[in-house]
Write a structure and sequence with these properties.
Layout (H helix, E strand, L loop, with lengths): L1 H9 L5 H12 L6 H12 L2 E3 L30 E3 L23 H5 L9 H8 L9 E9 L5 E2 L1 H8 L11 E8 L2 E6 L5 H17 L2 E6 L3 E3 L9 H11 L9 H10 L10 E5 L8 H14 L2 E6 L12 H6 L5 E4 L3 H16 L3
Parallel strand pairs: 6-7, 6-9, 9-10, 10-11
Antiparallel strand pairs: 1-2, 3-5, 4-5, 7-8
Helix pairs in contact: 1-2, 5-7, 7-8, 9-10
């Protein structure tokens, strides 16, 4: 009861709802007492009208307005409510059940789990901006930086600080390894079989190019580098320009040939120590043996290989396609990528895969 009295003094109620929540928070301690509290509150305050407080009315400057004596009031007023007949047409019905407002997902959250073919260009662009908030992986470098959580003692800063205390190392300065973003190389299939996912994958590549230390490529029958194009400040302009550059879009698929071209080009060193992400459904016109051979070379050069397949999230999926079956032994992870929720989870898988060997 003391808590309730202090709550009324700190925040005088201006409405019935404010009085209800002040009383409920300060008086109810257990869930089992909530039903009894509701019955008592309705029995006392159903016909009550809250009178707004007036500053400066009492000796402390924050008392309630004095009210005339009413039936059942032994002290003749001074209470923050008055018993009056119910108002006809009041917005709040007597005896109505109170409930905490329900938190519902936003419009974008409702679209995040829908397939790409059900979304229009504006919805894809809006959801693509969410991918830029992903947590990208980092790598440990040989450099060290000063940090209180470090395990090693930084000898030179410790000796420098000891000059202030007569060369006695009273305070030890610690250091910890410095971490930098790990490079990510993303290759996305934009062939005919990936037409529904192509635009969404372009937004994923833009998130990689603008936020992470990434190199992004699109491929169908040939390989096209899109790192510079997708770093445009406007997402719409970047995706439109990328669509113009990729001349073989919605054509055939040659995964093995494009991976071999990447390793043979001057961008092949970008995959050294990097997390390589390949986005494709596995439908390839090249022989599976060629894909297995080039992935074996890529596996020796890359840090991790993650394959995201838009069909992997379908119930009953099995990697039985020839190219997919040949590539699976060389991949650290096979993740679904059929919705924007799946693409956001891809970033989580990249960060987790970069921390531990699978």
């Amino acid at each position: 009861m003391d808590d309730f009295v202090r709550a009324l003094g700190v925040c005088p109620p201006r409405s019935r709802d404010e009085l209800y929540w002040s009383a409920r928070v300060s008086l109810v301690r257990r869930q089992a007492d909530l039903a009894a509290f509701e019955r008592v509150f309705r029995g006392v305050f159903d016909d009550a009208v809250i009178v707004a407080p007036r500053r400066g009315a009492g000796p402390r400057g924050d008392s309630f307005v004095s009210l005339p004596a009413s039936e059942g009031s032994p002290d003749g007023g001074g209470l923050p409510w008055a018993t009056l007949p119910p108002v006809v047409g009041d917005a709040e019905e007597a005896g109505a059940e109170r409930s905490v407002p329900e938190r519902r997902p936003s419009g974008l959250a409702g679209l995040a789990d829908r397939p790409f073919e059900e979304l229009d260009a504006a919805q894809v662009a809006a959801l693509g901006e969410r991918l830029r908030a992903a947590d990208w992986p980092s790598r440990r470098t040989r450099r060290a930086r000063i940090g209180a959580s470090g395990r090693r003692i930084a000898l030179r800063p410790t000796l420098t600080r000891a000059r202030r205390t007569g060369w006695e190392p009273v305070a030890l300065v610690r250091s910890r390894p410095e971490r930098r973003p790990r490079r990510v190389v993303l290759l996305c299939d934009v062939s005919q079989s990936m037409q529904a996912q192509a635009t969404a994958y372009l937004h994923l590549m833009r998130a990689f190019a603008t936020v992470a230390d990434a190199e992004v490529f699109a491929f169908a029958t040939t390989l096209t580098r899109l790192t510079v194009v997708l770093r445009h400040t406007s997402a719409v302009a970047a995706v439109e320009r990328a669509g113009e550059i990729v001349t073989d879009r919605f054509g055939g698929t040659r995964i093995a040939t494009n991976l071999r071209a990447l390793l043979a080009s001057h961008h092949g060193n970008a995959v050294r120590g990097a997390v390589v992400v390949i986005g494709s459904d596995g439908w390839d016109s090249d022989p599976p043996a060629e894909l297995a051979a080039v992935l074996a070379r890529l596996r020796r050069r890359a840090y991790r290989i993650i394959w995201m397949n838009p069909r992997a999230g379908v119930a009953g999926f099995a990697p039985q396609v020839g190219a997919m079956a040949a590539a699976l032994p060389f991949c650290d992870r096979l993740v679904p990528a059929g919705t924007f929720d799946d693409l956001a989870q891809v970033a989580v898988e990249i960060a987790e895969c970069a921390r531990t060997r699978v």
